[in-house]
Every structure is written in C-alpha cells, then in structure tokens.
Amino acid sequence: MNKTSQCTAFVALLMSTSAIADEAPNIDDSHSTNIIKASPVDTSNQAQILVDLGWDSKYISEGRNNLDKGGIYWATAAIQKNNINVYATVGRGDSQHYTEWNFGIEYGFDLTDNLSGSAGYQRLEFYGDERAHDNEIFSNLEYTAVDWLVPSISYTYSTEAEGSFVEASLHSNWELAQGFTVSPYLTQAFDFKYTTEDHDGANHFQFGVEAEYLLPNNLVLSGHISHTIAQEDIKLEAHNNGVTGNLDETFAGLHLSWSF
C-alpha cells in the first residue's frame, strides 16, 4: 500500500501561521506529498504549536482513490522551532474501516530570496483490510518571485516500494479581499516505481482551485476542489487489473487550523 502521506487537502499550517503575521497568505497545497511545510525562516526562536482538523470527500493520492467508499477525516498536530517541524497526523475513513498514521520531521530553508525548500522523513502506518507501513524521504522546492505564478517541485522516495514520485506544480495566488486568497493550480505527476513497477513516467495530471481565509485568533479556514486526469501509469495498472470505466477523479476538502 504505497501512497504519499497527506495526498489530500492538509492545510499548510506553518506557512499559514507566517502568512498571518506577514498579511500574505499561502495557500494549502492540497495535492502535495508533504503534510505540513516547515517555514524556511524562523527568527523568533520560539516554538509554535499547530493543530489542524479537516475532511476530504475522497482519499485521493497519486491520482487514485484509496478507499472503496466515502471520504476521510484528518487531524494533525505539529511543533516547529528554528526551521525544524515535527508532526503527527491521523486519518480515519468516514464510511469504512481505515486508519492511517503519519509521523515526520522536516527542515525548511532558503536558498535565495525567492527560492525556498524543505526536506524531511516520515513514517507511515496503515490499518484497514490490510496492515502495512512505509518510510518516506521527501523534499520540495518553491520559487516565489511573483505571487501570480509560483512554480514548485516535490520529490518523495519510498523505502518499501524502492521507488519515487515527482510532482511539478504551478500556483497562481490572488488575494481577492483582506485575508482571503484564491489559488488555481496545475500539477503534473510522474511515477518511478513508487506506485507501480510496470511503468515509469506520466502518472496523472491534476488541476483545481484552493482558497484560504484568515480568521481572528490565528485561525485559518481553507478548502479546495480538485480534478485528476489519469495518464499512462494509472491506465496500465487498471488494464492489468481488469478495471474498466472512468479513471479520473473529482474531490474536495475543508480544513480549519489553529496556531499558538
């Protein structure tokens, strides 16, 4: 059961906290392989605690629906200090027996004024019809010279699958009102034996709209609606498993986060 952690809409809690202070919100990267992004720069030397609660209408990762029916609830707690972020996340299916735990540590850094990144490790534990686990090493780069066109690339390596997954994204962030930002995005994903062994290359194309609203008392409300288009990796897997029909997915999510 290979899947990137948090492939559905987790709020980027730490980035959102920095956004509240700077009055420049950063959108939840709902399709990212990372659960929570570590802030590249932390000059306060004070620990931040963050809590996030959310729900997704489907559990979509790597362009695939991981549950036979229903959606999934998420709860995340994180502590960040000096660019180090330690987090724990639990997900539970709302209509079937499924539980997932993610435990991780991530380091955020700045390469230039406009180029930031992060790298980390996480342990995944899955409880459902089958018991499984995984270890992942991940990294991310993001270029933020202009808000209306923010390219990023993320990389995840799975020790169980001995394969990697790559996502290249473009976000366009628009602050439509004070504290309210809407961000349409595009993502192209590539699978290299992370999800399947039979095909390397294009996995799926995803697009959608993310929104974030900064509330009083360090609360952030965010949501997304997204659509995936299956490409060769998903199509080949479906063909080998005798699956027919539409392989594309549409899903949405809503999250509320609090930092203190």
TrEMBL record:
Region forming the signal peptide: 1-21
Protein species of origin: Shewanella sairae
UniProt KW keywords: Signal
Protein name: Uncharacterized protein
